Amino acid sequence: MRNRVKRWVGGLAMLLAACSNGAAKQEEGPTVSIPHEASVTVYPVDLAGQPRVEVARVVASMLERGGMQRVEVSERAWSADASQSLDPWANEVAASVKAKSPASDYVLVGAYVGSPKRGVDEVRSVLVNANGEVVWSDCQKKGDRDFDRIRPSNPMTCTVLMVERLKRPMALDDPFRKGAPRSRHERAMDADAGVASEAELAAMRKRAAALSKDARPSLVVYPVRVGDTYSSKESASLSRALEALGQVSASKDVRKFAFTGSMNQQKVLWSAARAIQADLKKSPVKADYVLFAHYVKTPMKEEPFAVHTFLFTGAGEFVVVDYQNSHKADFNTIDPRTPAACTQLAVLRVQRHWGG
Asked: Whole-model pTM above 0.85?
């Protein structure tokens, strides 16, 4: 059981949640107005009964992108029984927060509680002031407008739903809007995730710009990671679809790669990219380019929720590190619900970068 819970809450691909039945239905929530200059501390979000600070960092990033100016993240654990209905749970959270004497004007606590079998039932959040009083609480479940519109199925979409519900009391702008300010929490997460430096990105742009100028380059496509397995069928499909780009072949050699599970998708992406790069540096490939793909899944659903595509030189230099999820236009156009559809998306992304 311990290993199953660890796998469940271990990272972006393994974090899924839901709240209990019986919570009050709140389409709009109580009236409260929290100014953007108020200080807010985000406590670790409850996932399967375990407080997860990495999820709190994503919440804090979204709040800052939405307009909040003083958002901190606490690593302090808190406790409340999420099997209760909304009000008793919120009051228990408030008592736990008060006992810790918060230094900020408000504390935000979220809970995504559930099981792999049920998927997401509900998403909860509560705002507590410095006096330990509940000023706003919310619980969304199936049948509620925002829940049915966002359809949360993983920790990121649960967090999107929670922040959507916070727009009213915090007067938040859309954190995903064009031109939204980059959050300092986001920058810190990128640094922790191992996202490419500016120098690396500049070198990648230069290599990617040269792709379409290469005359019939050689490209080796390796078996695709689909969840926890590797598929030669999908790499063969990728190879056939990309034949026009050059001398393309599908290798049957499985080159396994690991990734770091995290709520931060960039950490999932770049930990895999750097693992593949290390392997290629150790054992280079006699080809101009090599292609890897990762169709990211949760253990609760068969449908992949992200498609990561990696293009390297044969010597292991980064050329393209690309991620697609439900916030990306190409992902939503193709709506990949099967490995074959993910392959279609991976082909499109390679062609876009290649200039095809």
From this structure: no
